[in-house]
Amino acid sequence: MKYIIGIIGLVVALGLAWIASSDKKNVKYKPIVTMIVLQFILGFALLNTEAGNILVGGIASGFEVLLKCAAEGVNFVFGGIVNDNQFTFFIGVLLPIVFISALIGILQHWKILPFVVKYIGLVLSKVNGMGKLESYNAVASAILGQSEVFISVKKQLGLLPKHRLYTLCASAMSTVSMSIVGSYMVLLKPKYVVTALVLNLFGGFIIASIINPYTVTDEEDILEVEQEQASAEAAITSDSQVKQKQTFFEVLGEYIMDGFKVAVIVAAMLIGFVAIIAMVNTMFKGIFGISFQDMLGYVFSPFAFLMGVPLSESIGAASIMATKLVSNEFVAMNLLAGGTIQLSARATAIVSVFLVSFANFSSIGIIAGAVKGLHEEQGNVVARFGLKLLYGATLVSVLTATIVGLIV
């Protein structure tokens, strides 16, 4: 039965993307089918095979070591503030972002990450039927983050037509930054985080290929990629002429400060969103006798059911998913990890992979602001298709969760 429901869910997710397509007649079905098959193969390998368990275990162990190293720095500054055996979200989850960001800065300075991103992007472009620039940007988004990635394609922003700009922004919203993956692993099982990262990469291309189909000529693609790579190598994190001359410790210091800014910004957003949701819940209970999150659970429960969540758990699971959509993934992950909503192992797997992306309303402003800071006119273009961007990115999460529901 679960396979019938899952296949229906898969058709619904792809159908919702097709309904919003800007050019239904020119959707390229062959690369879409290829990528869906790859998603199933990779998802099954990561979740259900010994090799996948070893790979995920290795990645999880690596991040566990990194988080322990981060804890040394955090404890040196904040040691004694938290009581023994107590947990503080800012100290335990957000501050390690500072160390991971510093590590990314080191790998960027040594030209390791640009090399990896470039060649993974080239391989992806052979599979997805899209341009090399789009493939590069998707991989770079998973490493740099949804706002920082646009700096690496700064020179191309003014040259890109609306449809290509949409794909770049969709990739940024559908993935997550490497700097906060470790923080996710504190709240979710690492295997679900890793699986979501891999499947979302292909899911972003699948949904974008349906909603926003187009063809890039070889001449246009080669020219833009060469320009982009030159720009990225010179300035993958800021203005090229300045960053090219930076020393190792200047880069390290900058990434440390960037990581701290991210931690503080996320903390501020969590304070605001959690407080607002608490206020709205109180108002809804007083007026309607039901919390806002419970109401969202009822509204989104059919989608959770089609993703593979058992009917008896669909309302609770849907409320967590909807919380992520209206606030952000950290609020929803904390709700899931808190245990106030009890879910089975299968439902937890589906909800967990759904949460691993930047698809929420606040991301519209973040991405539009990042692009506008580099190119004002293109930033206005992004703001105009912001809701369609969120719609597509949410369908990526739905697609990934549905596939995992069929696998687990």
Automatic annotation (TrEMBL):
Residue spans crossing the bilayer: 29-47, 87-107, 165-186, 192-211, 262-284, 304-326, 347-369, 389-407
Family annotation (Pfam families): Gate (PF07670), Nucleos_tra2_C (PF07662), Nucleos_tra2_N (PF01773)
Keywords noted in UniProt: Cell membrane, Membrane, Transmembrane, Transmembrane helix
Membrane topology annotation: Multi-pass membrane protein
Subcellular location: Cell membrane
Top-level taxon of the source organism: Bacteria
Domain Concentrative nucleoside transporter C-terminal: 192-405
InterPro entries: C_nuclsd_transpt (IPR008276), CNT_C_dom (IPR011657), CNT_N_dom (IPR002668), Gate_dom (IPR011642)
Residue ranges constituting the Nucleoside transporter/FeoB GTPase Gate domain according to the UniProt record: 90-190
Similarity section: Belongs to the concentrative nucleoside transporter (CNT) (TC 2.A.41) family.
Protein name: Nucleoside transporter C-terminal domain-containing protein
